[in-house]
C-alpha cells in the first residue's frame, strides 16, 4: 500500500503515480524492419538474362514439413536425418528447370547447398548438369550467429562477384539464407535475379514457379 504524509498535496500524489508511466512512454520504440518488396520478372527481364551477367538464386522445391531436420544430429551424408523434398517439390523443380531451358537462360556455373532437398532439386531440374556442392551454402535457420556468419558471407560473395561474359551464375540453396542477407523469404522454387555490382549486388526481380507461364506464352 502507498503511504502518504498527512500534509501531502493531491497533485504531489498524482505526480508520484505518473512518473513510472512517463518513464515507460519515453523509451524509444524498437525499429521495425522494412517489408521487402518482391518484384516480378517481365519478358524484358528474360531478354536481359539471355545476355548473361547475373547471379540467379533458386530456392529448393516444396518439402515434407512433417519430417524436420534432426537438429543437431543432421548428417549431410544421410538424407533420412534431413527434411526431404516431397513429390510436389520434385515436380516443381522439374518444371522450373524446363522453364529455364525454354527461356534460353544460360549459366556456366552452379553452386549448390549440401542438403539433400537441394541436391534433389538440382537432380530434378538440371539432370546431369555439372555443379559444385558448397558447404558454405548450408541452411542457416538452426545455426548460431557465429555459425551463420561464414555462410552469409559466402552467399554475399556469390551474389556480388563478376560473372563470365555472356552467361550467368546459378546458386541453389535456402530461403532463410536470403532472409538473413536482404530480408526476403522467397517461396519454394522461386528464381531470384541479382545483378553483381563490384563488391555488392542489386536485387532485380523474382520468378515464382507459377509466374513462368505468363513469361513464356
Q: Tell me the Rg in angstroms.
A: 25 Å
Describe the oligomeric state of these chains in a short phrase: single chain
* Arithmetic mean pLDDT: 90
Category from helices, strands and their pairing: alpha/beta
Q: Biggest sheet, strands in spatial order?
A: 3-2-4-1-5-6
Distance between the termini: 76 Å
Query: What is the tally of beta strands?
Result: 6
Summary?
This protein is an alpha/beta fold. It has helices at 10-26, 43-50, 87-102, 116-125, 145-160, 175-182, 212-216, and strands spanning 55-59, 109-112, 132-133, 169-173, 191-197, 200-207. The chain is built from seven helices and six strands.
Main features:
alpha/beta, 217 residues, globular, Rossmann fold, 6-stranded mixed β-sheet
Give an account of the 3D structure.
The structure is a single chain. The chain is of the alpha/beta class and 217 residues long. It has one domain: Phosphoglycerate mutase-like (Rossmann fold, 3-Layer(aba) Sandwich), CATH 3.40.50. Helices cover 37% and strands 14% of the residues. It has helices spanning 10-26, 43-50, 87-102, 116-125, 145-160, 175-182, 212-216, and strands spanning 55-59, 109-112, 132-133, 169-173, 191-197, 200-207. Helix 5 crosses helix 6. The radius of gyration is 25 Å and the shape is globular.
Amino acid at each position: 500500500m502507498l503511504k502518504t504524509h498527512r500534509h501531502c498535496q493531491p497533485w504531489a500524489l498524482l505526480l508520484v503515480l505518473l512518473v513510472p508511466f512517463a518513464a515507460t512512454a519515453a523509451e524509444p520504440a524498437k525499429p521495425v524492419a522494412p517489408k521487402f518488396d518482391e518484384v516480378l520478372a517481365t519478358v524484358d527481364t528474360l531478354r536481359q538474362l539471355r545476355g548473361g551477367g547475373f547471379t540467379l538464386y533458386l530456392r529448393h522445391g516444396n518439402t515434407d514439413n512433417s519430417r524436420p531436420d534432426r537438429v543437431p544430429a543432421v548428417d549431410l551424408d544421410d538424407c533420412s536425418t534431413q527434411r526431404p523434398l516431397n513429390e510436389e517439390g520434385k515436380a516443381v523443380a522439374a518444371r522450373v528447370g524446363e522453364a529455364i531451358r525454354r527461356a534460353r537462360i544460360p549459366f556456366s556455373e552452379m553452386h549448390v547447398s549440401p542438403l539433400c532437398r537441394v541436391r534433389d532439386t538440382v537432380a530434378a531440374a538440371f539432370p546431369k548438369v555439372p555443379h559444385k556442392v558448397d558447404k558454405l551454402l548450408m541452411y542457416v535457420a538452426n545455426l548460431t550467429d557465429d555459425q551463420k556468419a561464414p555462410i552469409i558471407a559466402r552467399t554475399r560473395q556469390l551474389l556480388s562477384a563478376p560473372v563470365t561474359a555472356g552467361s550467368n551464375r546459378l546458386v541453389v540453396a535456402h530461403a532463410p539464407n536470403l532472409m538473413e542477407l536482404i530480408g526476403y523469404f522467397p517461396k519454394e522454387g522461386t528464381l531470384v535475379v541479382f545483378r553483381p555490382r563490384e563488391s555488392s549486388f542489386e536485387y532485380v526481380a523474382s520468378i515464382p514457379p507459377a509466374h513462368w507461364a505468363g513469361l513464356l506464352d
